[in-house]
Structure formats: C-alpha cells, structure tokens
Amino acid sequence: MTVVLALVVGGGVASAGLPTPPVPALPAPPLSDDVFYVPPSPLPDGKPGDVIRTRDVPLSSYPDARVQQIMYLSTDIHDKLVPVTGMLLTPLLQKPGNDNPLVVHTPGTRGLDDRCAPSKQANPLQANPGSPEYAMPEYQQLLARGISVVVTDYEGQGTPGDPSYLVGQSEGRNGLDALRAAEHIKGSGVSPDSPVGISGYSQGGQAAAWAAELQPTYAPEQHLKAVLAGGTPTDMLLEVNHLNGNPTAGAGFALASLVGLNHGKPELDLDSKLTPEGKQILDQVKQSCVVELFAGFGTTTVGQVTNPDVLSDPAWQNAYRASQLGTKKPGAPAYLYHGTADNIVPIAQAEMLYHDWCTQGASVQYETIPATEHISANILGSQRGVQWLADRVEGAQTIAGCHEVDLS
C-alpha cells in the first residue's frame, strides 16, 4: 500500500522573438530520503550512540514538538558497528537546561521494507498507510509533560539491508544507543545526566525488555528510572510456533522472523533452505509493512517456504531461544501489561516474564487488561502505563517488590 504524490509542472512555448527570461535561482533541495537514509561508506570511526547525521522535519504530525530524523551508530549481536536511523521528538514545553527527562520508544512491528520505518512516518505527506504510527498517543502523552522521546527504527529498518526483526539483543542495543544519540545532539535539552525511561509494545515490548536487561552492562552510564513493556513476546520459539500458519495471529509475522533471525545470524543460511515458492513469498514479506504482514499471508507456514522445515532444525531452535527474556534482572523497576484475550502474543508469555523478573529480584507492576486482544490492550493499557513511566522519569519512587495492578 503506497501513497504516490505526483507534482506535475507544465511549460509553455515562448513567443518568437521574445528573449528567454532568466531562470530564478532556487535554494538547494533538502536531503532526500534516499540520501539521508543511506549511510556513509565507510562508516565513521566512533562508538555506539555517536550521531552520524540529523535533519529537521519541518512539516510533522507533532505540532507540540521539534522533530528530527537521526542516524547514529549502534552494534549488532556480533559487536560490529552498524548504522541505525530514528527520530527525536523534543517538546516545545521543555524546561530550560540540558538534563530534562528522556524516553526511548522501541516500536512495535512496522514491517520489513524500508518505507515502513517509524521515522519516515513523521511527515504526514510521506507517511505510509501500511505502517500506521499507532504509538502517537503515547508520544503526545509524554511530550505534554515535557518529556523528550527518541524512537529507533532498528538495524536495517530505515537503512539498506534486512532488519534484525525480533532478534532481542539487537533491538535492545539499538534502543539504548538511541538514548545515547539523543543525549549527544546539540540543543536537544537532554544529556548523559538526564533521567531516562524505556517503553515498547509487542515487538517493541520485546525490545524494551531486552534493553532493560542489557542496560546494566551495555549502557551502565544511563540513569535508567523505569521500563514499560506490553504485549511482550518472551519466548521466541514458543511465539513463532504460535504464529506459524495462524491467520488470526498473523502468519506473516512468523515468516518475517525468518528474515530477521537470518540477518542476525547469517550462518543459518536461510537462502539454501528456501523452496522456489518460499523465495517468492519471502521476497514479498521483505516488501511488506505491518498491515500487509498481518493480512497478506493467510495460513502460509514456515514448512511451506523452507525444506526441511527450519522450525524443526536444532540450529534454528537455538537461535530463537537466544532471544529468551527473563534471564537477567532489568536495570530499573518495570511495568508490564497484557490483554487476557491476546491472540497474537498469548498472555502466558507475559506471566512468564513477570515470574522470571520477580525471581531475579526486580520490582515489577503487572497489569492484566480483561477481555482485550493485542491491539485493544495497547490502546487501553498504555495510558496508565505511560503515566507510571512518566512519573518515574520525573522522580517518583516505586514500591519495591512485585505487585499486580489493582484496576478497581
């Protein structure tokens, strides 16, 4: 699904004998998407979180914020520097100074094609209807309180190449490095002294939870105050088997996870295992945004695109298990929420993470939202959770221990 904006400029024929009028000098056009999102080659020397480039988005969906698209350095799961894009939303109501609060939003599934990247949806004239910005209410809720929001596109989402879709460690690193990048941007009003938070839902819940577990060792300098994660796929092997061939959960998401896992771990050599039909299907997956992924692949299974079925391959099983959450204590208090009737990420996944984090000694609030599936749980649950997150990056304390949220 695309929107095409055509600008047609017409020209007449000059009358015979009349001098040709001079062509007025025009300002240089802004850096095009094709140029902005193509990383320099070679990459500049630097460290994770260093900023490669930024540009303002003068026409945006956020009238109460300055919007900047950004490109910064992060690392993949092999510790190699990679370019990642995203966007920074700086509230116009921001207080003076350079230590204002900052939240990184790790987005839910937007698709695999570069046109689906969250930062590319900031300009309403360029936004892709197949990749709706369903986190906008959360951003606006934070911006209204003077809290900046930085959003990562993840490795390979805006930039050339495949993304590491649903590879938890990669997503978590990209989110933490987005915090670092925002803190390095001149005039952002945030700095390494800023209190920070992490937020995400669905794929973004996985990324947020991974960022929380990685923060104490990967980004210990960050003043992490709170983590908000909803609809979180905790065990990727269980999750991909649930999605596999499931038309009501989105079989396309399982197929997309093959692409993401293979990008993160190229030794899996997905291409050698694709059937001829499978190659055509995965080419379509790579060109799809979230709406197309959910609705466009029916009951297609991993076994129809790979031979033998890679979900039965121990190497692939172990690779999925490497994204297992709950093995480490998060770096800050957490708030988990999940719909009781979630058909995309079953609630058992949230209960698993809640139990595991509590066993690790974390302080966790857990909200179950009755009779809600995946999308409605995001809408209904995020407002309360975002308020909890905002309170903590603004200095509120958390009661130690694990507690289920009382909705009465």
- Range of helix content: 25-40%
Distance between the ends: 42 Å
SS-based class: alpha/beta
CATH superfamily of the largest domain: Alpha/Beta hydrolase fold, catalytic domain
Largest sheet: 10 strands, mixed
Order of adjacent strands in the largest pleated sheet: 1-2-3-5-4-6-7-8-9-10
Query: Helix count?
Result: 12
Shape assignment? globular
Low-confidence stretches: 1-31
The helix/strand order is HEEEEHEHEHEHHHHHHEHEHE
Tell me the CATH architecture of the largest domain: 3-Layer(aba) Sandwich
CATH class of the largest domain: Alpha Beta
- How many domains in all? 2
Protein name: Lipase family protein
Pfam families: LIP
Write a structural description.
This protein is of the alpha/beta class and 408 residues long. It has 2 domains: 269 residues, 3-Layer(aba) Sandwich (Rossmann fold); 84 residues, 434 Repressor (Amino-terminal Domain) (Orthogonal Bundle). The protein has 12 helices and 10 strands. α2 runs parallel beside α12, α3 crosses α4 and α5 crosses α6. The chain starts with 32 loop residues before the first helix and ends with a strand. The N terminus is likely disordered.
List keywords for this structure.
alpha/beta; Rossmann fold; disordered N terminus; AB_hydrolase_fold; 408 residues; Lipase family protein; Lipase_secreted; 434 Repressor (Amino-terminal Domain)
